Structure formats: C-alpha cells, structure tokens
Amino acid sequence: MSNQEPQNQNKTAEEAGVEKRRRFIKGAAAATPVILTLASTSVFGQEECLSQQMSGNASGTTGSCVKGHLPAFWKDPVNRNSWPTGFDYGTALDNPASTTDCNRYSGGTTFNDPIAFGSGVGFISPTPTESIRVILCTSITSPAAIWSAALLNSVTIPSYILSKAQVLDLWNGGAAPIADKLLFLQSTMQ
Q1: Beta-strand (E) ranges in 9-152?
Q2: Largest CA distance in the chain
Q3: How many angstroms separate the CA atoms of 181 and 171, rounded?
C-alpha cells in the first residue's frame, strides 16, 4: 500500500501541472488579439509618427514617418519649386537661372496669410507680416523660420511627423513654453 500512495501524489502533481499549462495556453490565446493589435500599423499615420517622435522611438520602422527639411532648404531659391501649391516663394527680380540669392526675389506668401498661419494666436508677437521667404532669408534660426519650415514640411511631405493641423495646433495653443515647442520642431527636421 505504501507504494501506491506516492503514485497517487505524483498523479495529483501531474494533474496540477497540466491544469497550469492549460491556464497558460488559455491566457496566451486571449492575449493574442491584443498583441496583434499593438503590432499593427495605425490608420492615423501622422498621429503614429507624432507618437513615435514624442516617445523617442528609435525603432526605425521603414516608411512610417520621416523628418522634414531644415529652414535652409526652404530658403534656397533652387528649391522654390518644392513649395506646396498655394504657397508662393516670390518672383525673381532678374533672370532666375542666375539668381541663387533669396533676396533677389520679391513678394511671396506672407507668414500671416490665411493659407499659412493666418491670424491665429501664435507665439510670435506680433505675428510677422513679411513673406515666408523674407523670414527665411533673414535668419534660418529665427522662431518664425522654424515655424515656417515645419508648416512647409507638413504640407509637402506626406510622411512628415506632423500634419498641417498639428503644426497649427502647436502654433495656436498648448501650455508648453515656446522654447520647448521650437526645440521639438527642430527635432522633426534634418
């Protein structure tokens, strides 16, 4: 009889082990949809890009989001054809083929134009009335130049970290200090 008793104890231990494995498999099966959901790409592409940027995600997910151009790119007359529809770089004062100086142009979309930043609240007071080109020509490191580059990037680059609406939301509100917003915008450019 004493031989049979240990066998029953082993059988009980085996049944407990089997039950633990069953619970583990059931739990894994229940978690699978959640894992698949977390691994899937968001249908809100730019929100995902912004989230990746804000969290410091360095996963390098191909094609998910890209950094935009620096203000120097948008300043260069060679790139004036890259400006989005509705935005005007300006008109050359002489032969455009020989004009490489952005100051050799006149006119262009103003910073406070409704297609750009409009008359929103903003953080640069008063809102500049110069053309975006003049702002970029004056200083590519000025706050208005950084905001201009972010706006142009958001309108021309489909996978840019921010949508136009997000750039304008940053411009018009939020509690973050302007210096923090400028640093963030600069981090979205290369």
Answers
A1: 91-92, 105-106
A2: 110
A3: 9
Which residues fall within 8 angstroms of residue 153, CB to CB, at 6 or more apart?
Answer: 68, 69, 160, 162, 188, 189
- Give the C-alpha separation, 45 to 41, whole Å: 8
Question: CA nearest 147: which of 131, 170, 125, 163?
Answer: 170
Euclidean distance between CA atoms 111 and 146, whole angstroms: 12
Residue 39: both structure tokens together? 């691994």
State phi, psi for 185 to the nearest 5 degrees: -60, -40
Residue 145 in tokens: 């130049």
For 106-128, the pLDDT digits (tens) are 999 999 999 999 877 787 878 89
pLDDT tens digits, 28-68: 555 444 433 333 334 344 445 656 555 555 555 555 789 99
| Whole-number Å distance between alpha carbons of 101 and 37 | 51
User: Is the pTM here over 0.90, yes or no?
Assistant: no
- Using the CB atoms, write b or e for 154-173: b if 16+ within 10 Å: bbbbeebbbbbebbbebbee
